[in-house]
Amino acid sequence: SIVILDFGSQFTRLIARRFRELGAYSVILPGTTPMERILEQNPLGVVLSGGPSSVYDEGAPHPDPRLLESDLPILGVCYGMQFLAQQAGGTVERVGKREYGKAELTRYGGRLFQGVSGEFVAWMSHSDSVTSLPGGYEVVAATEDTPVAAIENVERRRFGMQFHPEVVHTPKGIRLLENFLEVCGAARDWTPQHIVDELIESVRAQVGSGRVLLAISGGVDSSTLGLLLARAIGEQLTAVFIDHGLLRLGEREQVESALRPLGVNLVTVDASEQFLSALAGVSDPEQKRKIIGREFIRAFDREAEKYGPFEFLAQGTLYPDVIESAGGEGAANIKSHHNVGGLPEDLQYKLVEPFRYLFKDEVREVAALLGLPEAIRMRHPFPGPGLAIRILGEVTREKLDILQRVDDLFISGLREFGLYDQVWQALAVLTPIQSVGVMGDYRTYGYTAALRAVTSIDGMTAEFARLPYEFLETVSNRIVNQVHEINRVVYDVTSKPPATIEWE
Ligand code: XMP
Asked: Is Ligase one of the keywords UniProt gives this record (predicted)?
């Protein structure tokens, strides 16, 4: 594998993703990881990431000195390059202004630039620079402001880049990473099929003949996990899908018909009565969430009891969740994730988390290979509390029924117009606002539905999607004509921040 030592750059994960896109398995470890643990990964090469520190600061994080004495190829990016240079006897200083943004290389060459031609735009983000070069190293690239933009010591297979080859703003950067893989002699066999085979093997090795419980939410992660576990351990798996009654129209049936034919031992439970009576009379958003979380655990425990005992609990934890909470040294401490309704932390089960080292797009590729239908595989995110946080105020069966029909018209419309995959998430909200309308010759007094669609990378920030007016017109007509309780449709044109994506 390629080991990426993380010194705190916001781009570290991107480096790992790029290598994987190139078919090479890569893992991220904290920057100060001891050599023994690095070697456990059977590294063929090591990347030192960027980071916020200055190499000359007291207490700046350093990799294990034994790494630098080893014969492993090393690529230092930004802080990583400065560290390589300084450690080999060069000088790193804060010179003049901080360079941030796109810069064109005025010259480039050397081993990692092999096969690159034409203009080379590099993304810079640094305030320190290498000002004198250590022995054995050569400058192989420069920009107007940064005379030392890339260095190499070919003999020792040590390379440094002041810019970030992993970001999209360095369009030809992927080629440099590919060349580094070549220098490392890294295999390029990290394919979805390879991932599936390895995951199946590791699940079998972990659980043996033990029984495994899995909560299915209907999203891509838990559904894919269900398929994987069914392949790996067949009937030792019991997958439980709690229908809390707050789902989209036809969602339970969709999940059942996707998973059962592929051999997933799936139990579905209609717990809508339990959830709705617990929610009766409650209109505070946070309280609704809490109640749903609590009832989910109750319902899940009940099923676990009924079909148990189970030795293992499977969870669709992804790599970003694990890295995010990696507490520096030692084992990563996993944050409590909320894949479904949020499970308690004091579980009596051992955890099975086969996707711990996968990114979301890798899970989607695995899903395709395992036969998960496109409609689930490419689905928008859907919150655990479901439609309850899209009905402002109290949740009732009647309101759920109205919102399900509105939502269905909106979402199927997006698919029909080829817009579904262009937005990150889309949802309908049932507001308590009633207003006057006219249909035929009659006065109406009905509810207002709000539609929201956003573009986003990760849901942390979002912009409202610029949906075409013709589409909005069609959908608005359909909703008002087919859902009689609604006589007005509005489109939410707020971004996040200041608004959130969900209305509650
Ligand atoms: P907000 O509304 O905070 O949503 O901008 C960001 C993303 O998180 C989802 N979301 C939730 N997911 N439980 C979940 O599992 C929740 O309580 C919850 N609240 C919001 C939301 O759908 C969006 O994708």
From this structure: yes
